[in-house]
Amino acid sequence: MAVADLVADGFGRIRGSVHQVLDGLDAGLISERIDPGANSIGWLIWHLTRVQDDHLAELAGTEQVWTEQGWADRFGLPLHPSDTGYGHGQDEVAAVRVESPDLLTAYHDAVHGTTVSWLAGLRAQDLDRIVDRAWDPPVTMGARLVSVLADDLQHVGQAAFLRGLLERR
What we know:
By secondary structure, this protein is an all-alpha fold. Helix content is 60%, strand content 3%. It is built from seven helices and two strands; from the N terminus they run ααααααββα. The protein has helices at 3-22, 41-60, 65-68, 71-75, 90-95, 101-119, 141-168, and strands at 130-132, 139-140. Strands 1-2 form a two-stranded antiparallel sheet. β1 (130-132) and β2 (139-140) form a beta hairpin. The N and C termini lie far apart (44 Å). The mean pLDDT is 96.
């Protein structure tokens, strides 16, 4: 299996899980939080998609789908367009109000399409390229890809768990 296919498979599993969480979700549950300090399903899916968009655009040397394709305007959030949700406190989490699961799904699908398209050209030797020297040891492209995959999988799992909790109340 080629490296590009392996990584694309991982991102495809995230996409499938995002669809599972959002498909048929009552729009009233998307921004509900189990307590004031908790994340909502909408925030979790928005954040994991924003991180994927941000980090993959940086690796590819392209503009983010969020701004290039007008998603920031469609969402209309009271946040800076570069905001990915990293470090958000409860007030910022509360500000990420998404009225429709379909909007989140569409944005995630757009990011996924761009991700898979870029990954098609990924070669094994690309994984060793240093992409961030601010860390010790410096971060390679391979480590960054695994980091995004791990973060996204954790957040989509949290969103699935949260959906189950909210629907069983």
